[in-house]
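Hi all, posting the design record for the shared folder.

TITLE: backbone redesign
STEP: 1 of 1
STRUCTURE INPUT:
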């Protein structure tokens, strides 16, 4: 996964970037992510001061999330939670779609290997 950071108004040290990357790697285990674009801002004049936006390039429609909060940790946890929920919703919709294509047991024909029950 290629990660692009845009950090404004914060001291972006290696520890901060490693923590952010670690959180994104956990999402990588749920869905393959090719690129991630992260914008973190601290606006001293506004309240709440911290803002985060994430754009994930994934198979199918891309996934986006944004949040604002009073601390960097809180805003990041909100964004990651939103991304995780979107991924899980997408996976559950896919599972429902695939289950709908399965052949119903009552509709099985004699050629499918299922026993045929004669109705009288």
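Okay, here is what came back for every position:
SEQUENCE:
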């Amino acid at each position: 996964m290629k990660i692009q950071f845009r950090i404004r108004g914060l001291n972006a040290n290696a520890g901060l970037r490693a923590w952010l990357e670690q959180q994104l790697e956990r999402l990588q285990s749920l869905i393959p992510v090719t690129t991630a674009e992260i914008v973190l801002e601290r606006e001293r004049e506004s309240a709440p001061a911290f803002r985060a936006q994430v754009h994930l390039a994934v198979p199918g429609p891309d996934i986006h999330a944004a949040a604002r909060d009073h601390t960097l940790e809180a805003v990041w946890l909100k964004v990651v939670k939103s991304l995780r929920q979107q991924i899980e919703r997408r996976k559950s919709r896919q599972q429902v779609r695939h289950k709908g294509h399965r052949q119903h047991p009552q509709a099985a024909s004699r050629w499918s290997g299922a026993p045929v029950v004669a109705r009288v």
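COMMENT: Residues 23 and 80 are 7 Å apart (CA to CA).
Let me know if anyone wants the other runs.
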